[in-house]
Amino acid sequence: MGLMERNSTPHLLEADGIQLTLGGRVLLSDVYLRVTTGQVVGLLGRNGCGKSTLLQAVFGTQRVADASVRVDGRRVVPAYRQPGLLSYLPQVPLLPAHLTATGAARLLGVDVEQALAAFPELLEQRHRPVGELSGGTARLLEVLLLLHTNTAFSLLDEPFTGVMPVHIDALAQVIRDLKQRKGILLTDHRYAEVLALCDVVYLLHDGRLECLPDPLSGLRDRGYLK
Ligand SMILES: Nc1ncnc2c1ncn2[C@@H]1O[C@H](COP(=O)(O)OP(=O)(O)OP(=O)(O)O)[C@@H](O)[C@H]1O
């Protein structure tokens, strides 16, 4: 039984003291990150600054010595092993080309009609292999399925990439609706969409993670936005 079935009380996901050197470069050195259920949290930073690596460190597929990832104060490393805790959407395509949306949803324990309800044209294609969908449509499908998994938290690496603007708006609304029952940590370079959607915004810079109290002016002051 997953965290979400046990009770409807809020949960807290924390990553703390994540230090990582890759290829001789200190990538993550001073990281504290928290996400609660009911929140959408954004993670921003330049290309190559380590956002994907940080998501993988939280999920547990990137091994980090002495990583402290906690749920409700209890250490869970690797976190992916904890049933009902995390779903993770990597930056690269996730679903095998031969799988249909219906088949993928079944594997993930997701109700496909519910997951795709806001996108009728995608729902109509639920019996087609993913490999026959356009790149942006396949990405949208992956994001929707991962969001609808029965986990307390979802980690999404670039959910908006390749998705057309009108669908990004609808997807943002799905995320807003779903945060009633889960916490969502996402990274994306679509800053306007991220700022409009997120309750909390972190900036990763030179290995340090900074929570921006006023994201718009914080990003402008640091030269990330004009
Ligand atoms: N196994 C590895 N060995 C050495 N360097 C690595 C390894 N994996 C990733 N890197 C490097 O770590 C850095 C961070 O990569 P990462 O994908 O986490 O960045 P990112 O912030 O998600 O970037 P983007 O916004 O471009 O997706 C990059 O410079 C990358 O080349």
Protein model, in words:
With 226 residues, this protein is an alpha/beta fold. The chain has one domain (37-62, 77-221): P-loop containing nucleotide triphosphate hydrolases (Rossmann fold). The chain contains 9 helices and 12 strands. The strands form 3 sheets. A 6-stranded mixed sheet has the order 8-9-10-5-11-12, sandwiched between helices. It has a 4-stranded antiparallel sheet with strand order 4-1-6-7, with no helix packed on it. Bound molecules: adenosine-5'-triphosphate (ATP). The site of adenosine-5'-triphosphate has 12 residues, from helix 2.
Distinctive features:
single chain; 226 residues; alpha/beta; Rossmann fold; four-stranded antiparallel sheet; 31% helix; 23% strand; binds adenosine-5'-triphosphate; ATP-binding
CATH homologous superfamily descriptor? P-loop containing nucleotide triphosphate hydrolases
Tally of separate domains: 1
Helix content: 25-40%
Q: Give the name of the CATH architecture.
A: 3-Layer(aba) Sandwich
Topology-level CATH name: Rossmann fold
Give the C-alpha Rg.
Answer: 17 Å
Mean pLDDT: 94
Per the principal axes of the C-alpha atoms, what is the gross shape?
Answer: globular
Q: Name the CATH class.
A: Alpha Beta
Offer a quick outline of the entry.
By secondary structure, the chain is α/β, with parallel strands linked by helices. It contains nine helices and twelve strands.
